[in-house]
Amino acid sequence: MITPEQLDELERLEKQATPGPWGWTNHGEKCNCAVLGIFYNKTDEQVGGHVTEEVYDEHTGDYKRVVEFCDAIATKEDDANYTDFALLAELRNLAPTLISTARSHAALEAEIQHAIREAKSYEPDYPWTQNTITEAVRALGSSLQGTSQANADLHAENKRLREALEKIARYDSGNGCCTYGCDTPTIAKITLGEQA
Fold first, then answer.
1. Which of the four, 125, 136, 150, 162, has the lowest number of CB atoms within 10 Å?
2. Is 182 in contact with 172 (CB distance < 8 Å)?
3. Is beta strand 33-41 parallel, antiparallel or unpaired with respect to 23-27?
4. pLDDT digits (tens, 9 = 90+) for 52-88
5. What is the 3-state secondary structure (H, E, C) of the chain?
6. Cβ–Cβ contacts within 10 Å for residue 60, how many?
7. What b/e string do you get for 26-38 counting C-beta neighbours within 10 Å, with b at 16 or more?
8. Are 38 and 75 in contact (CB under 8 A)?
9. Interatomic CA distance for residues 59 and 9, integer angstroms
10. How far apart are CA 163 and CA 153, in angstroms?
């Protein structure tokens, strides 16, 4: 698995590299030459992937240039492995998406691990060592169940506190104080929002 440091370094290199998309083309019938670089079509858009610089025009019976080569990134003058050039171009062109996806995956993985840690406290007897999607779903469900239970407990406690404050507020003997002269009923009413 890629580390955050490796991802940071990859992102740094991607930002400093020649902007994509990168294209590549082959030429030479006997030498198998290849060029990786920047190519533009006739509307000045960069072209990526395998680039055909010329196409046969049936109307004129000749080849016409459809892509212009602009800048070389890498060349191989003899016995080029075209797959190497295709791979380099494709990796460069997909680099921003791959980096973003890896960062999203890392964030999701951290959330799942957090859910598993939480679920272990609610289901300590479950064997939390499988590292499967099923286990992750179970952990998320257990974590949600635990969160829901904690939320229900807080609501119940809030209800008990409100009922106690309402009871204390009813001790008011008409002047904001209880029959013993303390202002506890007023404090209860303020807490309940009944009095400013």
1. 125
2. no
3. antiparallel
4. 877 777 887 877 777 887 888 888 887 788 888 889 9
5. CCCHHHHHHHHHHHHHCCCCCCEEEEECCCCCEEEEEEEEECCCCEECEECCCEEEECCCCEEEECEEEEEEEEEECCCCCHHHHHHHHHHHHHHHHHHHHHHHHHHHHHHHHHHHHHHHHHCCCCCCCCCCHHHHHHHHHHHHHHHHHHHHHHHHHHHHHHHHHHHHHCCCCCCCCCCCCCCHHHHHHHHHCCCC
6. 8
7. beeeeeebbbbbb
8. no
9. 51
10. 15
Angle at which helix 133-169 crosses helix 184-192, to 10 degrees, equals: 140
Token duo for residue 141: 């469900």
Phi, psi for 64 (deg, rounded to 5): -130, 145
Amino acid at 107: A
Place of tokens 């003058």: 77
Per the listing, tokens 């902007």 go with 19
Q: Which among 46, 25, 20 is positioned nearest to 36, based on CA atoms?
A: 25
The first and second tokens of residue 168, run together, are 């204390």
